[in-house]
Design goal:
Chain A has 347 residues and is an alpha+beta fold. Chain A has ten helices and twelve strands. In chain A, strands 4, 5, 6, 7, 8, 9 and 10 form a seven-stranded antiparallel beta sheet that branches. Chain B has 15 helices and 67 strands. Classes of the chains: A alpha+beta (347), B mainly beta (999). β6 of chain A pairs antiparallel with β51 of chain B, so a sheet runs across the interface.
């Protein structure tokens, strides 16, 4: 089905409104759809938030071709670069999905279905010699996969150079999360775990801290290899090679305590099984009667405003997609929890 | 996070915290670990014990105790009290001498180190020249005679430790007049013993290790008598009148020598090998005590026939035809005799023998026929069987207290009723504010009830659970049951028993309800006993039930130990706590948690497989719940079987040697038992070492998964009357927390009292909470509407607690090893949390609610959580807001067994084991403090010729240092000394001139 309609270029409005409009003109008010457009290079690109919607509208020349697919039978592989220059054009792909089945592509999911694995954060407030790495751990499918050991490092003190005990990464498990990020390496010195300095703590203490924070582990290291350090002005991420432009103001002051406070709040919730019902996540006992979802949203907005800046993420995701969708996924009461913790003893 | 970065700056709260919390280690209870030396002052009536770690502890009347620690932490080899002084000298194994004194400071006496001294020889001399082997504090209180390995005797002045070189007694001087042929055969070698003449302070007896004994005249600096012993010398003892002395020897013999002015080289009067004729072990110390009736007491250590009894640690007492060899289960360190210290008394008249063995203190009453033991009021051997768990109950009602004491007194009939003979000093500590009980569970299946109210931890009552079971150990298998005619006449004394007949009997959990007198104990083989206090002994059948915790789980096979066999039919129980219900868990894994509700008459128990609830009124199992995870294979093999093949060891022998930390490596002699223990220890050390080598110095960082072993292990059980289902009706409930971070809540229906026997108790699972961080749940607590923890069962009924607020909404506090979380009830939603591990890297090991009272005002008190972490820190966390109040380092983090043994009281005190035999008591509260406070005064010497200064020991000490003041001589010889001095002015002058000459 084809529809043609006009939009005011200067006032495109919000993505939500546009989405509603699309559903309206196609008379499919309750069908979830994926929206895409072809850009000037002929690439089929998704429209799923205000930013890329605005970008799409701005590229209209003057016509903007928009593709709509039902979410259930969406062909994600249709999106991406060069999609329109392939031999089989997008349209045929879209229109004849059975054609596509014979030749399965590697499925590249939508940005909101991505989840970040790791990120370098707080680049603006840390010395260049340090790196703060955040590891996101989901479920038990992939181990964190690293070992730490005791060691000694040299510090500059008022009395000159002094050898002080320190904690170092001793081994990376092949295929583990830590190794796959490329952000941690053997002999990196661990300085902080989730904002708490490790100096003066024993190896076992640090181990316990890391395990207790394993769902959202932020470790600050002094990399053994100082050649891949983040160059502050260009704001590129270090070792992985991929880089993204930061789309947010970089000068917002960030207070560590604030940041950690939010980290603290954003971790997982426990599960309750009432009588012999279904497992549910335990809600926060909030003073308001807001639903879990709305509460989460509020907290997230809070977080992004408080943090005030975006860490340059390892994946090339925009801020909104990377942060919000990920958080939402973790909190979604029935989306992920069972899958993640499929080991709950049911009655 | 903010709460940690910016800890509470509320000044009001900060001030209040100072009034509430204070950390003190107050007193050590129990028996000093690895004692190495013993000393006694008949003048002060104080006993001193030194240890291998350099501690020195003084004990007098109950409550009078002092402790000192040598900085060097070296073994204390010898302790000598300075006659008639509040001072003592210790010799350490680094050859240093230390002078300690008891001084009064702000109303109480304190033990302080005054001086230290190391004897130095002339340059170039070998170290043995100054290695001190014998110490004699002279009755003049001015000098110490120090016998050395070289055979020289040095004289040092007190308290300055100045060496008086011109008075040194060299071995050459001694040997001058020794007959040629004797001298050729043996050199003097080391000085084994120095003894002052009991009547004449100018004469000292010197014993050299090769057997030569000489009487040395201090006035004329020459030998007056030679006693040519032929055997290697061990020790010497003067008889009271100074006319004879006795020497004991390496070959197990002792010899009496006469001392008279006409024979300068007397022959021995009598030479006897008491346990001959076969070769005997050395007699290392001997006493000869005179009595009115003329029959002396000869008391000596050792001397047993080498081949058949060489492994025994014995002290023999011979009194006429009576002879007993007291047989100790551990090595005898030293002993002393308490005898008449009245200087005028003509005879010794010994009253008691005090023996310090390696693991216990034994006091024998020598006045009562049969020589019974005296029950010590302190220095209890906590580890007479290894402690496996402990439980503290505060504020025991008087009625229960008296009943326990009366039950205990029936067990103590074989003890002497002699008053405690070591009674120096005065206890001036206020009376303990309440009656507290500390219950310790032991490996041999006993529970000991200790009076923990005050400074002296003493045994009230001992409960044994063994009687309920059939064990393979033959009850008649007593190696010491010997007939009347048996020789040597060994008699086992003391309570230290390092063997456990069957490790399955070990007690793991104890719960005592102080209001009803119900006691629940649970053990290693899944046995749970419910007991009731009965003042009479009784014979009855114990109801027996089995709880199959695996239920319908398939394919599991228990590879651990078998369950204990029960005795059929009626069993006779002595007065005290008598079991009436036995529940045995199947599989018979160790019971890991226990709760008793005396009002509902329910007992809950948990193991690594699940938990169950038993109605001990109707004697019916209410339900069981399996907590096993399907992948949890380890739980089935039995935790013990992995550590040590228990079955194997059971097969081999039921006399399993306790894996105590008692280090027997340093034991010098000994074979048999000692060797066995040594072997076992060596093996254990080796195992430990191997384990250490296997453990890498690196740590794996991995999120916990549900597949970890032992997730089903039930860590905590808790009864609460709360709102479980809806907010309008509260009901009895049972809560269980597992190692895998799961909390189960069961709603209970307990029939009202009048129909309690007619209707069954029902239970239904109401909730299951899975903590996402999956850390072991170590505590569950329900807070009422006023955020106060729910009272204990029957507490309200006894008017000892306000009834809980059932109006406001209740809250559930779940403490895991890593986090504290508060949830609302009945709808479970999380309200508050404190993530301890995520911030500090420490884990919760023990947690209790403690009530802290303010030291400023009587009417303020609050409940807080007292928490012990794996790092040995103690933290106080406020309720209900979970704010960290204060933290104190308490136990070394390497001291795993100390941390594991810690028990908190309800009023902010606590105990933990600093060694297998000692509890350290600590206090977190400013209000509840139990610590020794005592005064030791110089006993008054009623002498009419001497101006006695009553105003404290400092004056007396100063006074006594002035020359010629001999008025306060050691009592045993003092009065006679006085006579000598008064009647013979020449002697007095001579002494004075000697002393002045010495300066």
């Amino acid at each position: 089905e084809f529809r043609r309609f006009s939009l005011e270029r200067s006032k495109p409005g919000k993505f939500e409104e546009f989405y509603g409009l699309l559903q309206h003109v196609h008379k499919i008010p309750n069908v979830d759809v994926l929206v895409g457009y072809t850009d000037i290079h002929g690439d089929l690109l998704p429209i799923n938030n205000d930013d890329n919607y605005h970008k799409a509208v701005s590229t209209a020349n003057p016509l903007l071709r928009i593709f709509i697919q039902r979410k259930e039978d969406a062909d994600y592989s249709a999106f991406g670069t060069d999609t329109m220059t392939r031999k089989k054009n997008v349209l045929s792909n879209v229109l004849r999905p059975d054609n596509h089945k014979k030749k399965p592509h590697i499925v590249i999911s939508m940005p909101q279905d991505f989840r970040p694995v790791s990120s370098i954060i707080d680049v603006d407030i840390l010395p260049e010699t340090h790196r703060r790495v955040r590891l996101y751990k989901y479920g038990t499918d992939k181990p964190l996969g690293f070992y730490i050991r005791d060691g000694s490092s040299v510090r500059v003190t008022p009395h000159g150079l002094e050898k002080v005990p320190g904690i170092f990464i001793s081994r990376l498990v092949p295929g583990g999360l830590a190794q796959s990020t490329g952000l941690l390496a053997v002999n990196d010195e661990v300085l902080e775990v989730n904002g708490i300095e490790v100096s003066g703590k024993s190896l076992d203490q640090v181990t316990d801290m890391m395990i207790a924070n394993s769902r959202n582990l932020i470790i600050t290291v002094r990399p053994a290899n100082q050649r891949n350090n983040v160059v502050r002005n260009s704001r590129t991420s270090g070792s992985s090679g991929q880089s993204t432009e930061s789309s947010l103001p970089s000068s917002t002051p960030n207070i560590l305590a604030n940041f950690l406070q939010e980290e603290d709040e954003s971790d997982e919730e426990d599960i309750i099984i009432e009588d012999s019902g279904e497992p549910q996540q335990i809600p926060k006992a909030a003073s308001t009667s807001e639903s879990l979802e709305s509460l989460t949203q509020i907290e997230l907005l809070h977080e992004s405003t408080q943090n005030g800046f975006l860490p340059s993420t390892e994946m090339n995701l925009s801020h909104s997609a990377g942060s919000i969708s990920m958080e939402y996924e973790v909190r979604d009461p029935d989306h992920k929890s069972l899958e993640e913790d499929g080991t709950i003893i049911t009655l | 996070m903010r709460r940690f970065l910016r800890p509470g700056h509320d000044p009001v709260r900060e001030r209040l915290k100072r009034d509430l919390f204070q950390f003190n280690k107050t007193v050590e209870h129990g028996f000093p670990h690895q004692p190495s030396a013993l000393g006694y002052s008949p003048f002060l009536r104080l006993m001193a014990i030194g240890t291998r770690s350099g501690a020195i502890k003084l004990y007098g009347a109950p409550g009078v105790e002092f402790m000192g620690l040598h900085e060097e932490n070296n073994t204390v080899m010898q302790i000598h009290f300075i006659p008639d002084q509040c001072q003592l000298v210790t010799l350490l194994d680094d050859n240093s001498l230390h002078l300690w004194s008891l001084k009064q400071h702000s109303g109480a006496s304190e033990l302080r180190e005054e001086h230290r001294f190391t004897l130095k020889g002339p340059p170039g001399s070998p170290p043995s020249a100054t290695q001190i082997t014998a110490v004699l504090p002279h009755s003049s209180r001015e000098v110490l005679y120090l016998g050395t390995e070289s055979g020289n005797i040095f004289v040092v002045e007190l308290p300055t430790f100045t060496v008086l070189e011109d008075r040194t007694i060299t071995s050459e001087a001694v040997l001058q007049r020794v007959p040629e042929d004797y001298c050729n055969r043996r050199s003097c070698e080391l000085v084994e013993a120095l003894r002052e003449h009991p009547k004449n302070p100018d004469q000292i007896l010197i014993g050299y290790s090769r057997g030569l004994i000489v009487l040395w005249d201090l006035q004329n600096n020459k030998v007056t008598h030679h006693f040519l012993g032929s055997q290697q010398l061990e020790n010497l003892y003067w008889q009271r009148d100074g006319s004879k002395f006795i020497s004991c020897h390496y070959d197990g013999s002792y010899t009496q020598w006469p001392v008279s002015s006409d024979n300068r080289q007397p022959e021995p009067l009598e030479n006897l090998v008491p346990y001959g004729p076969f070769p005997c072990k050395a007699i290392s110390k001997i006493y000869w005590q005179t009595t009115k009736n003329g029959v002396p007491y000869i008391i000596f250590q050792g001397g047993m026939p080498r081949a058949s009894y060489g492994d025994r640690h014995s002290i023999s007492v011979v009194h006429g035809s009576q002879q007993t060899a007291f047989d100790f289960t551990s090595r005898v360190i030293d002993f002393f005799i308490i005898f008449s210290s009245e200087p005028t008394a003509e005879f010794d008249d010994p009253s008691a023998m005090v023996v310090l063995a390696e693991e216990e203190l034994v006091v024998i009453d020598l006045k009562t026929a049969g020589w019974p033991a005296v029950h010590p009021p302190y220095l209890a051997s906590l580890h007479c069987s290894a402690i496996t768990c402990s439980h503290h109950v505060s504020n025991i009602p008087l009625k229960l207290w008296e009943r326990i004491i009366s039950a205990g007194s029936k067990q103590n009939i074989h003890y002497s009723n002699m008053p405690w003979p070591i009674d120096g000093g005065t206890n001036i500590a206020p009376d303990p504010p309440q009656r507290d009980l500390l219950l310790t569970g032991h490996e041999d299946g006993t529970v000991r009830f200790w009076d923990a109210s005050g400074v002296c931890l003493h045994l009230l009552y001992k409960l044994s659970t063994v009687r309920v079971f059939l064990t393979d150990a033959d009850p008649n298998d007593n190696m010491n049951t010997l007939g009347e005619d048996e020789w040597p006449p060994l008699r086992k004394v003391g309570t230290f028993d390092p063997y456990s007949d069957d490790p399955r009997l070990g007690i793991q959990k104890i719960y005592l309800c102080k209001y009803s007198g119900y006691l629940a104990v649970a053990g290693t083989a899944g046995q749970v006993l419910v007991m009731e206090l009965n003042d009479e002994d009784a014979e009855h059948v114990v109801d027996h039930a089995e709880a199959d915790l695996l239920q319908d789980q398939e394919g599991y096979r228990w590879k651990g130990h078998e369950k204990l066999k029960t005795r059929d039919g009626a069993v006779r129980f002595e007065a005290g706590f008598q079991p009436f219900v036995l529940v045995q868990c199947q599989p018979p894994a160790v019971v890991t948690s226990l709760a008793l509700h005396s009002e509902w008459k329910l007992v809950a128990f948990g193991t690594s497989h699940g938990f169950g609830l038993f109605d001990h009124q109707q004697k019916r199992l209410v339900f069981v719940k399996c907590t096993l995870h399907p992948s949890d294979q380890l739980a089935l093999e039995g935790p013990l079987s992995r550590v040590k093949s228990l079955k194997k060891s059971l097969r081999q022998s039921f006399r399993r040697i306790r894996r105590s930390r008692v280090s027997s490596r340093k034991r010098r002699g000994g074979s048999g038992n000692a060797a066995e223990v040594q072997e076992a220890n060596a093996k254990f050390d080796q195992d430990a070492l191997q384990e250490m080598e296997l453990a890498p110095v690196q740590r794996k960082i991995e999120a916990r998964s549900a597949e970890d072993s032992f997730t089903g292990f039930v860590r905590t059980l808790y009864f609460a009357d709360t709102f479980l289902r809806d907010s309008s009706r509260h009901c009895p409930s049972l809560w269980a927390g597992t190692n895998g971070g799961t909390v189960y809540a069961f709603c209970l229906r307990v029939p009202p009292a009048e129909r309690r026997m007619d209707e069954p108790v029902r239970a239904e699972q109401a909730k299951e909470i899975q903590l996402m961080h999956r850390a072991p749940v170590v505590g569950i607590l329900v807070l009422d509407g006023r955020s106060t923890p729910l009272p204990e069962p029957l507490e309200v009924a006894h008017d000892l607690s306000k009834s809980p607020d059932m109006q406001g909404s209740h809250q559930l506090l779940v403490v895991s090893e890593e986090q504290f979380k508060v949830f609302t009830l009945p709808k479970v939603s999380s309200k508050l949390k404190l993530k301890l591990t995520a911030l500090e890297g420490c884990r919760v090991r023990k947690v209790t609610v403690a009530n802290f009272g303010s030291c400023k005002t009587d009417d303020y008190s609050e409940n807080d959580l007292a928490v012990l972490t794996n790092l040995g820190d103690i933290q106080i966390i406020s309720l209900p807001f979970l704010k960290l109040q204060i933290r104190y380092p308490c136990i070394r983090k390497e001291d795993v067994s100390g941390i594991a043994s810690c028990v908190f009281t309800k009023y902010g005190q606590g105990f933990y084991l600093i060694s297998p035999s000692e509890f350290e008591r600590f206090s977190l509260s400013t209000k509840w403090l139990v610590e020794p406070r005592c005064i030791v005064d110089m006993p008054e010497v009623t002498s009419n010729n001497h101006v006695h200064n009553k105003s404290g020991m400092e004056n007396a000490a100063r006074k006594s240092r002035s020359s010629g003041d001999y008025g306060e001589d050691e009592r045993k010889s003092g009065r006679l000394m006085e006579h000598a001095l008064l009647n013979d002015e020449k002697v007095l002058k001579e002494i004075q001139s000697t002393l002045e000459g010495g300066r």
